[in-house]
Amino acid sequence: MTHPETAEGRSLPTDREVMDWELFGSASRSLAQQVVDSGFDPDVVVAIARGGLPAGGAVAYALGTKAVATLNVEFYTGVDERLADPVVLPPLLDTAALDGLQALLVDDVADTGETLALVRRMLVGHCAEVRTAVLYAKPRSVVDPDHVWRHTDRWITFPWSALPPVTRAVPAPPA
Predict the structure, then answer these.
(1) Which of 100, 108, 120, 171 has the fewest C-beta atoms lying within 10 Å of its C-beta?
(2) What is the 3-state secondary structure (H, E, C) of 111-134?
(3) Number of domains the chain is built from
């Protein structure tokens, strides 16, 4: 059995969730509807970069929330490879600007949940309330997100990370 490969030539699991752009649109609106139905009205959506950026933006639009903040966190270094702990990267979020606000923290997936937990801890001391929303949650997550579109234990291929990064075209040799 052959496995699909990443840009680095590493094998991907064959039993996986595959989200395309159309499904992403439906999932984001469904996630936003869950937030609305819960009665939560966030003042700000905080998206965890990078994977949470598309979801955070889409959910913010669906909610009509214009205030969107981002925080860059590095945890995954490759397919199912991660650092010992998530690391916040610059530029840093101005957490003081969130004092007293209702915040919805959005990411693409709560896999181990460590990234979501780290950022939630950072926000809790500033925000009046912090709720979490993810497209996917896995059973091993240390965080039980408040809003989840789908639960899975499989690897997930998202539309924004399905293809390798673009590279500069190599000019053709002169004829």
Answers:
(1) 171
(2) CCCHHHHHHHHHHHCCCCEEEEEE
(3) 1
Amino acid at 60: A
Residue 44, token pair as written in the block: 């700000």
In a domain, 6, yes or no: no
Tell me, what CATH number does 111's domain have? 3.40.50.2020
Q: Which CA distances in Å does 30 have to 59, 81, 135?
A: 9, 30, 9
Total residue count of the chain as it appears in this document: 175
132 located within any domain:
yes
Q: What is the pLDDT of residues 32-75, one digit of tens each?
A: 999 999 999 999 999 999 899 999 999 999 999 999 999 988 76
Mention every residue, 6+ apart, whose C-beta is less than 8 A from residue 60.
45, 47, 66, 67, 68, 106
Q: What are phi and psi of 164, to 5 degrees?
A: -70, 160
- pLDDT tens-digit map of 27-44: 999 999 999 999 999 999
| Contact predicate 46/65, CB 8 Å | no
Q: What is the CA radius of gyration of the chain?
A: 17
Q: For residue 70, give the H/E element and its range.
A: strand 68-78
* pTM (predicted TM-score): 0.83
For 117, the domain range is 16-157
